[in-house]
Amino acid sequence: MGEEIQTQPEPFDFTRHEQRAVSEYLRVVGYYEQLANATKRIAEEALKRRSIRVHSIEARAKDPKSFGKKASKPSQQDPNRPMYSDPLQQITDLAAIRIITFFPRTIEAIDSMLKSEFSVIEQFDKGEALIEEERFGYKSVHYLVAFSDARIALPEYQQFNKAKTEVQLRTILQHTWAEIEHDIQYKSSAAIPRDIRRRFMALAGLLEIADREFQAIQDADRDLNQRAERSIEAGQLDAVEITPIALKSYLDRRLGSDGRMSDFSYDWYVRLLLRLGFTSLAQIDQCISPYDSDRLSRLASGTRQGQLSRFEFMLLAGLGEKFLERHLYSQERWFVDSITSRLERFRKGAIPIGTYDPQAQPMNPAVVPLTKEG
Hints:
Low-confidence stretches: 131-136, 364-369
Largest sheet: 5 strands, mixed
CATH class of the largest domain: Alpha Beta
CATH topology of the largest domain: Beta Polymerase, domain 2
Shape: elongated
CATH architecture of the largest domain: 2-Layer Sandwich
């Protein structure tokens, strides 16, 4: 009997597998674009309802070329076979959205939003996975979500029944690392030279520290504003630093709120107040307390102006010539003429022009609680 001939299996045709996968995907890529955009729209509306501020939300269907490359990856268990025998069914990031936040703590609020608005199929921390795989990278949280049964019951979402979308959630700094990572040659810490490895690890640590510090600064700023508002409510103005939020809170209580005023306007007036020499709200209160803003406004312009304009008229009356001397526009002829004209109108209206100088007199710690006009 002749020896039995052993035949080797034909090598798997990865190129043909990739081409077939891309061809099938191109027929449905429009569907996944619609799915990604619908997921983005739902997330945007949910964030707006919850007053959660983010840097950006991006939506995309997977690029066909990228899909083909992923579809043709060899299996880790058997390099002669593909990782995805049925790529269209097994690859789960065909539709994806990316939510980029300013601060780490916002991620917790968005996590709650996602679990409320969607059915979360899977959640994993990419940073932890990278550590286990001994790869460099910076953490971000990934989710695999589907629309809830209640949403699928709506006609406009029925086509997305059981469809899955990947959600990437990261801070700006995490996103920066992820974008740069594509250009890093070494992916495994085992392969990278020791000196460069130390630099990579130091950079990753710096980014994490920066994220934490930005969060700490936001927390400190919020605490400062809350303390300022409490002090203003109690009339304890001597300890309140002049900031846009503190100024708005003070003027809202003193002159009545005015929704027409922008954040930029309060920021501009803070810069003006510092230029005039003020260092606390108590000094401002002492300067303007003798004056009726409504009367000054009608003398200066013939009508009742908005909150900040009336406040400026009070500053002018309280500071007198010092307002003009120290103003940001003190060298502009049109401004000098305008201020001179207003001061003359005040004098004709029997308004006593003050000489208050926040730089010249010591603070009085016994501050009289402010009272609202009218």
